[in-house]
Design a protein that fits this description.
By secondary structure, this protein is α/β, with parallel strands linked by helices. The protein contains 4 helices and 6 strands; from the N terminus they run E-H-E-E-H-E-H-E-H-E. It has a 6-stranded parallel sheet with strand order 3-2-1-4-5-6, sandwiched between helices. Strand 5, helix 4 and strand 6 form a beta-alpha-beta unit. The chain binds pyrazine-2-carboxylic acid and zinc ion. Zinc ion (ZN) binds next to loops.
């Protein structure tokens, strides 16, 4: 069966958040519509300790974001939470980068237990957690579909979105609308 993975649609990645993805809020409605069509929906959350290695204070590239249990780490309030069957938290250890929802989490086990063969990936951000989650899903042997209408990129460097898509296609990810 097919599962929908909703990557990191959290307040800190949306308008007014600590690390807003340009036009990030635009993924919410397409995701709510997609979620109606899937029997199993998993949301991942970026879920960091206050001293996470990716924060500038620790020498990392990012402002402090998605600190566990803060408002910024909560799922976007307009996501239809009743359609979400499981929530998986990544990047929970100070030294865990955790871009991928599969890194040191129960995500693969959850999907296998449901008999999932194909995962449909959506969410934020295309050039970081969405990309890494989709690549790890391929490595784990799942068929992977990326939904372009339901993802947005940060584009720290112009063209990161296009380069991400190329990498994903090369790995066998089907890039669809
Ligand atoms: C993400 C940057 C830092 C993401 C997470 O969810 O794509 N990006 N942490
Ligand atoms: Zn993060």
């Amino acid at each position: 069966m097919d599962a929908l993975i909703v990557v990191d649609v959290q307040n800190d990645f949306c308008a007014g958040g600590a690390l807003p993805v340009p036009d990030g809020d635009a993924v919410v409605e397409p995701i709510n519509r997609l979620a109606e069509q899937f029997p199993f929906v998993v949301a991942t959350r970026d879920w960091h300790p206050p001293d996470h290695l990716s924060f500038r204070e620790q020498g990392g590239p990012w402002p402090v974001h998605c600190v566990a249990d803060t408002g910024g780490a909560q799922l976007h309030p307009k996501l239809h939470s009743s359609q979400i069957d499981a929530v998986v938290d990544a990047g929970r250890e100070p030294q865990d980068e955790g871009y991928s929802g599969f890194e040191h989490t129960e995500l693969e086990r959850l999907l296998r237990d449901q008999g999932v063969q194909t995962v449909h990936v959506t969410g934020l951000a295309l050039d970081y957690c969405v990309k890494q989650t989709a690549l790890d899903a391929r490595s784990a042997g799942f068929d992977v579909v990326l939904h372009m209408s339901a993802t947005r990129a940060i584009n720290v460097n112009p063209g990161d979105d296009e380069r991400s898509l190329e990498e994903l296609r090369d790995a066998g990810v089907l890039v669809g609308e």
